[in-house]
Amino acid sequence: MEEESVDLGSGQVGDEFSADPYINPTLLSLQSAWYSFVFTLGVIGNIYIILTVWCRKEMSSTINWFIVNLAFSDLGILLISLPAEYIKDYFSWPFNKLTCQLFVPLNEVFFCVSIFTLTIITIERFRVICRPFKPRLTEKKAKIVIVLVWIVAYLAVGLPVSFLMEVEKMDSDLKCVLKWPGVLQRRLHTCFIATLVIVPLLITAAGYAAIVSTMRKQSSRIRARTNSISSNSLTFRRDMICLQQNAKLIKMLLLIVIVFWVCMMPLAVLALANEFGSINITTKVSHGLYAFCVALFFSNSAFNPIAVYVMSSELREGLYRLFQRVLTCFTGPILNEL
Description:
The protein has helices at residues 25-55, 62-90, 97-103, 106-130, 139-162, 183-224, 234-276, 284-311, 313-337, and strands at residues 3-4, 165-170, 173-180. The chain is mainly alpha-helical. A three-stranded antiparallel β-sheet has the order 1-3-2. β2 (165-170) and β3 form a beta hairpin. α2 (62-90) runs parallel beside α5, α4 (106-130) runs antiparallel to α5 and α8 packs across α9. The longest helix is centred in the C-terminal third of the chain and has 43 residues, at 234-276. It is globular and about 75 Å long.
């Protein structure tokens, strides 16, 4: 007997949630408007981050390449997963089975890429700040790690799920659904994805707690040295600048991590509760809660570039220069005519 899916990592917590024949037009309108806003804001923001780091050599660094990788995974969610999920939930599947197998499982791949990338950033920052004498990750090695992250994410969650995707007729519509051969396989998959959520959460929480503690000790040591050396000395100024730069970077990364987990955890909890709890999935409250969690899941892809922009003075400066160039392109010909 085949079982319907419960995909914790993707926008589809369960096809049974979206199998309701009655679609609330108000909920659909609100969700469509929000998705349009998230799509527009997220695509523009993530493309801007990618182009800024790619085109400005002074911004080329290990951390920035990992942030670019986050932007690519967010773009994948917005350009591929969001439209596929929206169509799958509310409309008849207009494509063939191969398209269902290729595109719908990519949501979990992008999700895992984001989790792995955030975890690697935490480990890399921990090594730099808490273990300063350890060899640092070079840009070349960072790019290799990024490629491996995509390969591992696809082989771990994308490829196995793709073989289980089916296009079935429900009522008068075709639906792209994930079919499990049994309950045991489905629950093992749910537990596996839950592990991919919980373990990185614990690693990032412990990592940033250690980083913040180490930086506080470093700050105390540097300030204590002001009693023995001049605050205008080169060594003191260099140490203070380094500490301030690290503090700004950690604040930005912490904001990204917090936004990510706030957006992702509700869907994860709902999936686990649906699988191992006793949720009545036929109620309007359940469908509304599912719609909210999925919307929050996709919203992270638009919130990430906002968090990076707010916390990064380099990106704000880059955006200012971009506006200047655009303004010059439009005003230059007019001034020449005058």
